[in-house]
Amino acid sequence: xxxxxxxxxxxxxxxxxxxxxxxxxxxxxxxxxxxxxxxxxxxxxxxxxxxxxxxxxxxxxxxxxxxxxxxxxxxxx
Length: 77
Description:
77 residues
């Protein structure tokens, strides 16, 4: 499974949305209305899923799926 697919799977499960609702180039707040608490929970879930340390500042409400994937890739390279 590639990073983008895994990110979408983790976020879909955590945020209780369909994977299709997670649009690659749209911010999470615009596409599915993520709030700040959900963003913190998302950071924690993604850290566990990928074994990397992410800062909540790196992954914000304005982040897109592509931004998150790039951030994780930079830490696993």
